[in-house]
Design a protein that fits this description.
The complex is a heterodimer of chains A (676) and B (304). With 676 residues, chain A is α/β, with parallel strands linked by helices. Chain A has 12 helices and 34 strands. Chain B folds into 2 domains: 227 residues, von Willebrand factor, type A domain (Rossmann fold, 3-Layer(aba) Sandwich), CATH 3.40.50; 55 residues, no CATH class. The chains are: A alpha/beta (676), B alpha/beta (304). The interface between A and B is medium-sized, with 25 and 35 residues.
Chain lengths: 676, 304
């Protein structure tokens, strides 16, 4: 037995309390001094001894109660050994069942179960077996045991899921799961052996041989030939009212089939189109729906293909189309007629996402509306007065974001409002020679893949000094920062060390400016984190609305985050197919989750490859070295931790009940005597 | 001051309760020996003591207090004579106080405490009558012994001795009473103050020799109310204060049978006292001390 929280044992000092109380009670009331007992006669009923025994029993119960309570807090666990110990003749059958999405095809999984049961039936008397499932991950279903009934019972509870099996990853996971066992291994891998599941490197499919144990791989195929399968490969919105559906021929030969494709939007069937699809091996045939009507916001697009083939589960595909209007963004400017406003507005409106610029005079701005916008733009940060700076500080601190540039109004200031960076002397450099870009942090999302920064002509900048809290994304020569990002609270502040009037530099009129504004907008509004169509078992990045994650609902309707996680969780794993709904302050966001398309490819690994695999696994094994006459037990290594706190709780309940009854009897006894 | 109450533990005179002394001032302690001497004519001078009415002179003998020598007669005759007055006979009073552990029993005040008050009161009373007083404190041994004398300071010495007495050990009368007999040769009054938790036969064996030697024995039998009528409501484990033995008794026995047994024991002690021609006075430690002495002295006066 081990204790997971042994520090709680200090609480055992508490048993001194009942001992002290009982001692006190006994001494105080049970024994009385008398001048002489020479005329007394022993009572026929040894009440005192009975009571003393009762006292002791009561005290023992109370001590036991405290001990068990403390023990329950220490989280004791027992390590239970498997039923059978390993000897030289023992063979450990590791049964690995493929439960990936492709096993839903036809009767594949039923056949896999039948194969597993056959393996269990043929186990030797000294053999042990363990059961694992392999899909997106490898799970231990039953630890090594000689009890075949246990494994058989576990088999009945299994079913295929929607994950993808990568055989290389599966072998690596198996290595770690069975590494500590000391027996001879036979790995029984029951699968459809999809070609798409084969590891890129063949060596990745060879299990490590640990401690010189012989390992044998037995391949059990649930199907031995390729199966033609049509699947919905893609759903694209090519125009605002046009949807193009791609059906893939997952076979090794040309195929054609008449299929009816149904397009449903937000659970309402919009169109049914029946067409004969023809595609070469692994080719895609397309069908276009026109005059499709979308609702505003996120739309759920469900594509269903009929008649079903032998693998109907991949004849469905979920997609999300964002039909939201251009996102509003505030541009704060002291001079609405300036060129800077024109340049920024143009860049934002031409960005792929599309933004609707709401120009506001910075002198008349009501900061109370800030909370409606995930991010804002300020063309000259120097125009921000002290009170507005405080409001903006609170806005950023609470999760908002600001893209700002310096300008003529920043001249003469000693620090950047909101950002807090100091300006050395408040002077601008105005040298005869132009500045040049020295370093661009292309790893940052705002600058990822952007080119053209080196072609800028920069004549004036502010001598901004940064500290550890600021991240300089672009440096000029003389180590002058040109683009600075600072995280403030839950939000971000992005500062360009140039004006946007095409005076200090020509950035506003260069093509890189448009892409920069678009990427900065995506970055500051956190849109970059969101991929609205994902594969099952992938991770969804949260932080959609100014750092707040919001609540996430699974396709089944379950909420996935606790109240605390709604503001803290950074990502969740998508384990169900369908639509996940992310509810944030601003809006609801949908994310479609589909099975991995590679699972629809039912072409199997060729026989030669499988043969080579078996041979290589056998070849890598060596003889197991046993110490003469000593059987090696796996009890310690593969023992299963069993928590006993439930048992302790039951015992505590029994003790409380017994203590109450006993204490009550004691009270009754007293009453009886008093009446004498 | 009430019995059991003390205002200064270390003061030797605290045992002399003024209320007790004021009530005893009008009474005279008449020693049994005087009465006996008066009745039997065996006492050498049973009718003479140190009162105000002069009777005669007698020659000074060793042992007499030199303070009583009449120096005027000495100046005229060159012989030492002592003035005798009519009144109570000067006598020896020996106070024997039991300090065995059982005397420590008592709810509000222990029997020992009560015994101390009684002993001190008797000593004070005797001292006022110019009697020679002595005391012995005993349990199963002689703890302290002070021979009888009428010298000044005796009373305070006895009171100091009483103050230091504590209830310890058991009760075994043979050894202390044997020693007592060895030291006391003159006849007088012997007051035994005890709870007499002993076999009456043993008591007879040890006290009877005193009576046979002419000592008048008064037995003050101290009992606590809880000893006479124990009142318990449930089975109780009692521990003997002397032996340390324990016994569990039920309340029915303690309320019905035990008082009978105690009464029988007291009766046996009283019968033993009668057999020795001694007086047996049962004192409940709950009753006021002055009243107890008054009752006793009244009784003695009647007998005298």
């Amino acid at each position: 037995m081990s204790l997971l929280s042994p520090l709680f044992l200090f609480a055992l000092l508490g048993i001194a309390l009942p001992i002290w109380l009982h001692r006190l009670q006994t001494n105080a009331t049970e024994r009385e001094k008398f001048s002489s007992i020479m005329f007394m006669e022993q009572s026929q009923q040894r009440v005192h001894i009975q009571r003393q025994l009762k006292y002791l029993l009561l005290m023992a119960l109370r001590i036991l109660f405290l001990v068990l309570l403390v023990l329950a807090f220490t989280k004791p666990v027992f390590f239970v050994a498997p039923d059978a110990a390993v000897t030289e003749d023992t063979t450990h059958h590791v049964i690995v069942l493929d439960t990936s999405f492709s096993m839903r095809e036809g009767g594949s999984f039923d056949q896999a179960i039948a194969l597993a049961e056959g393996l269990i039936d043929n186990m030797g008397t000294d053999d042990i077996a363990s059961l694992y499932t392999a899909s997106g991950s490898v799970e231990t279903i039953t630890a090594a045991t000689a009890d075949t009934a246990v494994i058989r019972g576990s088999l009945n509870d299994l079913s295929p899921d929607n994950g993808r099996l990568d055989i290389g990853a599966m072998v690596t996971a198996l290595d770690s799961l069975i590494a500590s066992s000391q027996a001879n291994f036979i790995i029984h891998f029951i699968s459809d052996y999809q070609q798409s599941g084969q590891a890129v490197r063949f060596a990745d499919m060879i299990p490590d041989v640990i401690n010189g144990r012989p390992v044998t791989l037995n391949i059990h195929q649930v199907k031995t030939q390729n199966i033609a399968n049509w699947s919905v490969a893609s759903v694209e919105i090519t125009a605002v009212d046009t949807v193009r559906i791609g059906l893939k021929n997952n076979s090794d030969a040309d195929q054609s089939a008449e299929k009816t494709v149904t397009l449903s939007i937000n659970d309402l069937t919009q169109q049914n189109l029946t067409e004969t699809f023809a595609a070469p091996a692994d080719g895609i045939s397309y069908l276009t729906f026109e005059n499709v009507l979308f609702e505003e916001g996120d739309n759920r697009l469900d594509v269903n293909v009929s008649p079903n083939d032998s693998f109907p589960e991949d004849d469905i595909r979920h997609t999300v189309f964002d039909n939201s209007p251009p996102a509003p963004v505030i541009l704060l400017s002291a001079d609405p007629e300036s060129l800077a406003v024109t340049y920024i507005t143009t860049a934002l409106e031409t960005a792929p996402r599309g933004y609707e610029v709401e120009l506001q005079n910075i002198n008349d701005f009501d900061p109370r509306i800030l909370q409606r916008y995930p991010w804002i733009v300020i063309d000259d940060i120097g125009a921000v007065n002290e009170s507005l700076a405080q409001e903006l500080q609170r806005y950023v601190d609470g999760g908002g974001a600001i893209l700002a540039a310096v300008g003529e109004r920043t001249l003469g200031q000693t620090s950047i409002p909101v950002g807090g960076q100091t300006i050395d002397g408040g002077l601008t450099f105005n040298r005869n020679t132009a500045y040049s870009i020295q370093r661009v942090n292309t790893a940052h999302p705002v600058l990822d893949g952007s080119v053209g920064w080196n072609n800028l002509a920069i004549s004036r900048v502010l001598p901004i000094e940064t500290d550890d809290t600021s991240n300089v994304l672009i440096n000029l020569n003389d180590d002058i920062p040109f683009l600075i990002e600072r995280n403030i609270g839950l939000g971000r502040f992005l500062l360009l060390n140039t004006d946007l009037n095409n005076t200090w530099s020509d950035l506003p009129v260069k093509p890189v400016f448009v892409s920069f504004i678009a990427e900065a907008a995506r970055h500051l509004s956190n849109e970059e984190l969101l991929v609205k169509e994902q594969t099952i078992n992938s991770f969804l990045q949260l932080g959609q609305n100014g750092g707040a994650s919001g609540q996430v609902y699974a396709p089944s309707g379950d909420s996935l985050l606790s109240l605390a996680d709604t503001t803290q969780a950074q990502s969740i794993q998508l384990t169900e197919t369908g639509y996940y709904r992310i509810v944030t302050l601003g809006r609801d966001i949908l994310v479609a989750v589909n099975p991995d398309a590679r699972e629809s490819d039912l072409n199997i690994m060729d026989a030669q490859t499988l043969q080579n695999w078996e041979t290589m696994v056998a070849g890598s094994a060596r003889s197991m070295e046993f110490v003469d006459g000593i059987a090696v037990s796996i009890a310690e290594e593969e023992s299963v931790a069993v928590e006993i706190w439930r048992v302790l709780l039951i015992l505590l309940a029994v003790i409380v009940l017994t203590e109450s009854l006993l204490g009550n009897r004691y009270l009754r006894f007293n009453t009886g005597n008093t009446s004498l | 001051m009430q019995i059991g109450q003390t205002d200064n533990k270390n003061a030797p005179t605290r045992l002399l309760d003024p209320s007790v002394l004021s009530s005893l001032a009008n009474l005279e302690l008449v020693a049994k020996a005087v009465v006996e001497g008066f009745v039997m004519g065996l006492h050498r001078s049973p009718k003479y003591g140190f009162s105000q009415e002069f009777v005669e002179y007698r020659a000074y003998v060793d042992g007499d207090d030199p303070r009583h020598i009449d120096w005027n007669v000495y100046s005229r005759t060159n012989k030492t004579f002592i003035k005798l007055f009519k009144g109570e006979t000067n006598s020896h009073l020996m106070l024997l106080l039991d300090t065995s552990a059982s005397m420590g029993f008592g709810a509000s005040h222990s029997k020992l405490q009560y015994g101390k008050y009684l002993t001190a009161s008797l000593a004070y009373l005797a001292s006022r009558q110019h009697d020679a007083i002595g005391a012995m404190i005993f349990n199963d041994e002689v703890v302290q012994y002070r021979p009888p004398t009428s010298k000044s300071g005796t009373l305070h010495g006895i009171i100091h001795m009483l103050d230091n007495a504590e209830a310890t050990q058991g009760t075994a009368m043979h050894k202390p009473f044997t020693r007592f007999r060895e030291h006391v040769k003159k006849r007088g009054l012997v007051a035994i103050i005890s709870d007499f938790y002993c076999d009456p036969e043993t008591l007879m064996e040890n006290v009877r020799p005193l009576a046979l030697h002419g000592q008048d024995v008064i037995m003050f039998h101290l009992m606590d109310p809880d000893e006479l009528n124990p009142n318990i409501k449930e089975s109780t484990l009692y521990e003997d204060m002397e032996s340390g033995d324990s016994i569990e008794v039920d309340p029915v026995f303690m309320q019905q049978d035990y008082p009978q047994r105690i009464k029988a024991h007291i009766a046996a002690i009283e019968k033993t006292a009668q057999g020795m021609n001694a007086d047996h006075i049962l004192l409940n430690t709950n009753e006021p001390l002055d009243r107890a002495l008054h009752s006793y002295l009244t009784f003695r006066e009647k007998r005298a």
